[in-house]
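Here comes a specimen:
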Amino acid sequence: MQATVAAWLIYQQTKDPLSLGLIGLSEAVPALGLALPGGILADRFDRRMIMLASSTLMLTASLAFVYFILGGSALLSAWPAYMLIFVIGLARGLFVPAQSALWGKLLPSTHYVNGSVWNSSLWQIGAVSGPAVGGLCYAWIGAGHTMILVCLLIGLALLSYMAMNGRKTERSSKAESVMESLESGLRFFFGHKLLLSAVTLDLVAVLFGGAVALLPAFADEVLHCGPEGLGYLRAAPALGAVMMGLYLAFRPPAKKAGILMMWCIAGFGCCMIGFALSEAFWLSMALLVMSGMFDNVSVIIRSTILQSHTPDEMRGRVSAVNSLFVGSSNEIGAFESGLAAKLFGLVPSVVGGGIITIASVIITSRLSPSLRKLNL
């Protein structure tokens, strides 16, 4: 919800697709900078307490959004918004490794595939409702009151974390300095060919293939559907992901999972090309829904590989490296999308990203036999 409101406010002020890319960059830079330190902290301290502290920082930034919007026109200058998004990125750099590492302790390893399906599906339900509700609330009650609702929901999440039982973090028996701990985590990640191949393939797709950051521009200039339509467009990929997640909950991707992952990423690239060329709202919605279906299969398989091939004492650091590659690639990809749209035009930039995504699948299929042979 917050992302939808902030993107629409900034784009209505600037009418510049590069400004949408700067939103992603403002969050990605601090998230990237703190990801590895956050991973080390997650492997040394109470992961639940780290989640509580970082979520409190997110809530503080959201309350500041409310102050700027309802307090006058200060937020109509884009820089306060970028600064608050930067703070949210700082919080996320600490939150993501702790959350991902804690998740690995909640289920036995034999349930990782099915757990990944439900984890992804439940997250996507929030991603479906959030943008749609954010766009509708923006149109009905205004940006300020929508942000108040965002703050209430973050507060609910904080209460949920407080209600969780703490999970003891397993630590390596070997005493390591901070730099040694960081080095061992990086060595494990980059030495694991299967994990590296899956993450790299997903990285390229998100970095170059996504069009989410440019949706306000498509909604305004191509589809002419306003903030309500923007909410539906942003919700469409997550809607597809939920639909696919519910299917996979009963038929998990076990056999030939690596080949399935590559086909789905190629399908994601084709959907992005089709979306860029579409001028009909219903067709654009359908293609975004299909892109979410394809993407969720990839996310579930990658998440299962990450959890099942990583020892608990390294989960925080490996999750941090993963977030450097994939987690923040959404924001870096947003900047790339905005810059490409500025240089080459809105439609050509998305078409080019889809072509790069398909090409990455072809290259990976030839260079990574371990991924081709993967069964979960």
In short: The longest helix spans residues 112-141. Residues 2-163+176-367 form a domain with the Growth Hormone; Chain: A; fold (CATH 1.20.1250.20). The radius of gyration is 20 Å. The chain has one domain: 2-163+176-367.
